[in-house]
Every structure is written in C-alpha cells, then in structure tokens.
Amino acid sequence: MDVLVNNTPSLAGEINALSSKNYTTRYLLVGALAEGTSTIYYPAHSEDSDAMRRCIQELGAELIEDEEKITITGFGASPRQVSELNVGNAGAVLRFLMGIAALGEEIHFVNTYPESLGKRPHQDLIDALEQLGVEVEHQDGRLPITIRGGKPQGGAIRVSGSVSSQYLSALLFLTPLLPEDSTIEVLGDLKSKVVVGQTLEVLEQAGITIHADENYMFFTVPGGQKYKPAEYTVQGDYPGSAAILAAAAVTNSEVTVTRLMEESKQGERAIVDVLRMMEVPLTHENNTVTIKGNGRLKAVEFDGDAATDAVLAMVAAAVFAEGTSRFYNVENLRYKECDRITDYLTELAKAGAKVEEKQAEIIVHGRPEGVEGGVEINAHYDHRVIMALTIVGLRAKQPIRIKDAHHVAKSYPGYFDHLQTLGANVEWV
Ligand SMILES: O=C(O)C1=C[C@@H](OP(=O)(O)O)[C@@H](O)[C@H](O)C1
Ligand SMILES: C=C(OP(=O)(O)O)C(=O)O
C-alpha cells in the first residue's frame, strides 16, 4: 500500500509515544531465557517485536497477552528444538536469536526479505560464534543461516564492533548461560555504543552479572548464570517519536508527545537536543516533549552514531533549515534495512532536497523555501525512510507518494494514524 503525503502547514495535538521496540525485544528475550514467569507492561506492537514474540514461542516460551501486558514463562537455557525460524525483516531479532540458537542443536534462519535483511552482513557475529565451537552455515555472511550449537562452553571471544553493536549484544545475552566464564573483547570501533547500554541495563534487571569496562570494549561474563523472572515496564520509543517531533519542527505546530523519559538510555533522545540546537521552540519536562514549531530551523552539525535510528528524521528536518547541516560518523547507516545514506539521499533528492553524501557522512543544504515534491518514492522496505520522507512531504509543494509505505509497521504501525490525529494531510492509497 502507498501513502500520499500532502502539504500540511500546521500540526496540533497530543499523542502518547509508541512503546520502545528495542526494550520490548530485549524484555521478551530475557523473559524467554528465564525459568519462571515474567511480566512485561506496555510492550510494543510492531512487526519486529512480533517477530521476537513468535520466535520465542516457537522456541518454547509460553506467552499470555492482554491489552496492557504480556506474561511470559521462559525456557531458560533449553530452547525447544525447532527446524527453522523466521524473523521477518528484524535485524536485532535475528542477531540476538543467532546467539541463542547456539544453545540448541540445529536451527535454520530463513530469508524472507532478500532485498532488505537478506542483504545485511552477519559475518562478525558468525566469526565470534565459531570461536565458541558453534558451526554456522551461511551465504557469504548473509541469510539463510543455519546454526549448529554443539554445546558451547564459554571462553575468550573477540568480536568486531565496527558494523553493528547487535553482534556484541547477542554475545552478552548468550554467554551468561554457558557453563564456563567468558571474556568478550571488542575489536575496532564499537558503533551504536549507547544501545549496548540498553542491553546491559536489561541484563541487570534480569539478574545477570556482567563486568564491563568503561568504554564497553572488554567484558567478563561469569558462566552458569540463570536469568531471573521479573516485572518490566517498557518506556516510550525515541526513534519512532523522533519522526513525529521532526514533523512538528518543520511545520507551524503545537504538538505534545508524552511518555518520553528525560533520563532514558536511548541515544535517540538526542532528537530533543538536536532540534533545540536547530532553534526549534520546545520543552522537555515530566517525560513530555512539547514543540511549538514556527517552521524555522537553523542548520546543525551532529555526530549521528549516538542516535543512529533518529538520524533520518533529523536529516529530514535539516532539509528545511537555513544553512548547511552535517551528520557525521554515520557509516553504519549503510548496513540497515537499506543503505540509509545512498538510497535515502537518492529519494530525498528526487523530492527536491539538496543533499550530498560521503562514505560516513550526510550533508544537507537547507531549503527553507520548501521542496518541489510531486514524485514517487521508493521506500526500499525501510520504515525509517518512509517516516522521514513523510516529514519532507508535509512541506513539499506537490504531494509525495511513498510506495509500499505499509513497511512502516516494522517499528511504528500507528505512525500515519498519529500524524492524522495531529492534522497531517496523509492518506493511504
Ligand atoms: O540493539 C538494537 O536493538 C539495535 C541496535 C542498532 O543497530 P546497530 O548496532 O546495527 O547500529 C539500531 O540501529 C537498531 O535499530 C536496534
Ligand atoms: C535498524 C533498525 O532495526 P534492526 O537493525 O533491528 O533491523 C531500525 O529499527 O531502524
């Protein structure tokens, strides 16, 4: 299904932020790895979090769900033998479960999104699992992948952090369950380091002990641990809300988003600081962000690695800023649902934005007068491209048609409903 985004001069209203995808996938996983019953309040509902739900159920977790919560009785360190798992298009879910699959005999991960997740690299995680004696069959580091556990014991592991933090997170979820102690040394630069902070926070809540050095480059993990059942409450999601906040910033608006914790470990809370640096009038107090946008923004320079999943929304806001903005240290955007530098900038340029790319950088020459629009956008299966191009469409002179915009449901199925609530002229076609 496509979405038509029409020029929308103003937005107004209040919405409750969607629930965090990254915390939901983690809480589901640690609930599944516990022996006993855990409760997760306000879990996210999206394709990615549903993929984790489905897979852990297949692996033997029992889930009961109502409007407000999921109770989950875990399988501990003994997942049920299943022949195959389908994670959809969810990168983090795949990588975390590749680690957990090492506890089983043989699990095959199928390739249902050959043009998106099917193109993403997993070699660094494969190399790390092989150091534990796990056998991995793969297609040049990509899906389809078969993992043959062979009872890993633990030990010294080295993993590259230069493409994705998810490989390290996967090892942090797995190693406490192995019989012997492990050490994990991160090689190269660790990208998306802040997300590892979320992994460690959740592991601690699940009663797991991990000794991490200050820079998250070396970890000591005692073996033979058990995940404890616990109660978890999922916080609001900054990456998705970043798109709503950026939409408010580029229009005349009075928009409030609740449930966005000031003290969150989500790096994407930097959307608030970046919009502030762009001189967008806003407040952030009592977990509530209010933007009173006047459509005027100043250019910004920002290290995007700290807020990887909000960079596309920031760039969309910068399209209308006065001056040239620069988002640097963002090379790993190239290894997401699509190449979020080349593919994204190609679509932005089609819509009339003035953008340039370097290997690890996005440069935006702002156009406060607005962009032309009147084009069809290839969303490249990427929810964040869909959300970001929508922001641009709100201020385009002619409507923008986003092809296959239903892929927004990977993380934020209610995105267009929320925008309509705020008065955006967007429609499914
Ligand atoms: O651990 C996680 O849940 C995630 C880590 C990040 O990926 P990278 O570490 O590959 O940047 C982020 O982009 C992704 O949406 C979710
Ligand atoms: C990159 C993302 O997710 P994943 O890596 O889990 O597919 C995302 O949510 O933007």
UniProtKB/TrEMBL annotation:
A GO molecular function held by the record: 3-phosphoshikimate 1-carboxyvinyltransferase activity
For this chain, the family text in UniProt reads:
Belongs to the EPSP synthase family.
Q: What is the lineage of its organism?
A: Bacteria, Bacillati, Bacillota, Bacilli, Bacillales
- Protein task: Catalyzes the transfer of the enolpyruvyl moiety of phosphoenolpyruvate (PEP) to the 5-hydroxyl of shikimate-3-phosphate (S3P) to produce enolpyruvyl shikimate-3-phosphate and inorganic phosphate.
The active-site annotation reads: D309 (proton acceptor)
InterPro entries in the record: Enolpyruvate_Tfrase_dom, Enolpyruvate_Tfrase_sf, EPSP_synthase, EPSP_synthase_CS, RNA3'P_cycl/enolpyr_Trfase_a/b
The annotated pathway is: Metabolic intermediate biosynthesis; chorismate biosynthesis; chorismate from D-erythrose 4-phosphate and phosphoenolpyruvate: step 6/7
On assembly, the entry states: Monomer.
Q: Where in the cell is it found?
A: Cytoplasm
Is Transferase tagged as a keyword?
A: yes
The species is Paenibacillus shunpengii
Q: Where does 3-phosphoshikimate bind?
A: K21, R26, S164, S165, Q166, S192, D309, N332, K336
UniProt entry keywords in alphabetical sequence: Amino-acid biosynthesis, Aromatic amino acid biosynthesis, Cytoplasm, Transferase
The EC number of this protein is 2.5.1.19
Pfam families attached here? EPSP_synthase (PF00275)
Q: Does the keyword Amino-acid biosynthesis apply?
A: yes
Indicate what this protein is called per its UniProt record. 3-phosphoshikimate 1-carboxyvinyltransferase
Q: Which reaction does it catalyse?
A: 3-phosphoshikimate + phosphoenolpyruvate = 5-O-(1-carboxyvinyl)-3-phosphoshikimate + phosphate
Q: Which residues make up the binding site for phosphoenolpyruvate?
A: K21, G91, R120, Q166, R340, R384, K410
| Residue ranges occupied by any Enolpyruvate transferase domain in the UniProt entry | 9-419
